[in-house]
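Worked Example 4.2. Consider the chain below.
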Amino acid sequence: MQKKLNHTLIPDFTQHFKHTFIYPFLRFLWVTHIYVDFFYTVVKIQRSLMQPCHFFLRLLPISYISLIIFKRLHTQKMIMHTTQHKLYYSSLNRIARAFTLTILGLLLTLPTFAQKNKSTQSTSPQNNENKKNGPIPFFDKKSYDYGDLDEDMKYATHKFEFTNIGDQNLFINNVVSSCGCTTPNWTRDSIPPGGKGFIETKYETINRLGKFKKTVTVYTNSQTASIIYLEIEGNVIKPQTTIIGAPLPQTVGGLFFDKGSVVFEPLYDNRADTQYIKLHNTTLYTTNFTPLNPDDYPKYVQILNFPSALEPNEFAKIKVIIDGTKAPGYGFGAFQIPVLSDNVVTPAMGLNITYSRKQYFPKYTAKQLAQQPKLSIKNPMHDFGSQISGDYLYCDYEFTNTGKKELEIKQVSADCPCFRLKFPKMKIAPGETIVVQGIFDTVTKNGAKTIGCEIVSNDPSSPSKWVYVKAQFQQKFKSCPTCH
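Applying the procedure from the previous section yields the following structure tokens:
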């Protein structure tokens, strides 16, 4: 009787819901809402971590409302008649509780994480602003075409201008041409940020008929542009001259080499190198040559296949060998060998030979390179400020071997004899620091002067480094200290 009364007073809506869309629809809405809201929140958090609380706060009430609805249904025994429904509701309830606790945990931790992320993002631009770029040379143009050049102009010059767009002083350490026919000149003083400098090239046109293309290599103290390549090109032609309006022939024949000089670039110190040059006879008669005198060129040079005579329109291919293991010093070298003949048009000429001797280093891996010697120079530029010429000026440079092997100073050469370095020793142990004295003779110096000195060592990462002295001299002279 009691069961029948309860059944009458509390209707069983579960059976009704099971056969309609309401019950599965409620379950679908609850589960779908949780997943959709969760992924929507994750996407929003990824786009803006600064407002995570807003999304989770709107997520929590909806989740709790869904739980309350199912609690109410459970209280009224609308969906709890079968064991299957009890197990289903119990599992669903545990999932909802775990999901709610997860949301609460994220709600407590993400504001702190967002605050840290905000502080990191706010400080990163400041770090970028404080980062220095160092000196940076910027050239408007890195190549120049002379076009057609008359041979009798002797020299063709061009000036490449550049600007220091960095935030530190820029130094041009050295400028090297690929051929002895091109002579470079450059700004010797330091170039402040925003300042301008130049690289000037002077190409010799005599006896260099035809097209040419030469490279000038610029070495700077910039980390981003330590080596810069400039190019010049053109075409040297015979000038067309007239006498009383009558044109003269472009050439009357003679002896000439097919290029201005024999170039060894580079010449490594561990082996000999070979180059070739052609000697042409464009006259109408046989030319006899005087044998070359071995005393006219260095002992480390060999000249092979030099002709004793050349017939008209004949040429000889001359072989030139330089032994890099015996050549003295490092850097640029040049000499000329006299060539004499009975040719009435060109009785005497010169065979020009140039080279740039460098140290040979094998290709190291990063690990092997870290085990080699490394030269570090503290404050390579010393500025004496305003001075009166005639005195000896002294300064100190600190040389440190920061590598793992013994460092050897192989060569020291200054731009001017007035500046020299005094070394206590030429070999520096790993981790050792020595003080090198700089001596600047200022006799007859006038105006702004910057003098450099190149140090060649066995540091494979930077075998050539420079130190400098700088001073501003007044127009007045002191007596020479060496003449007292």
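The two ends are 141 Å apart (CA to CA). The longest helix spans residues 83-130. Compare this with Example 4.1 before moving on.
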